[in-house]
Amino acid sequence: MKAVVITTPGGPEVLKLKEVDDPEVGDSEVLIKVDAAGVNRADTVQRKGSYPPPAGASPYPGLECSGTVIAVGQSVDRWKVGDEVCALLSGGGYAEKVAVPAGQVLPVPKSISLSYAASFPEVACTVWSTVFMTSHLTSGETFLIHGGSSGIGTFAIQIAKYYGVRVFVTAGSEEKLVTCKNLGADVGINYKTEDFAARVKEETGGKGVDVILDIIGGPYFQHNLDSLSLDGRLFIIGFQGGPITEVNLSGVLARRLTIQGAGLRTRTPENKAVIVAEVEKKVWPAIEAGNVKPVVYKTLPLSEAAEAHRIMESSAHIGKILLIP
Question: Keywords assigned by UniProt (predicted)?
Answer without folding.
Answer: NADP, Oxidoreductase
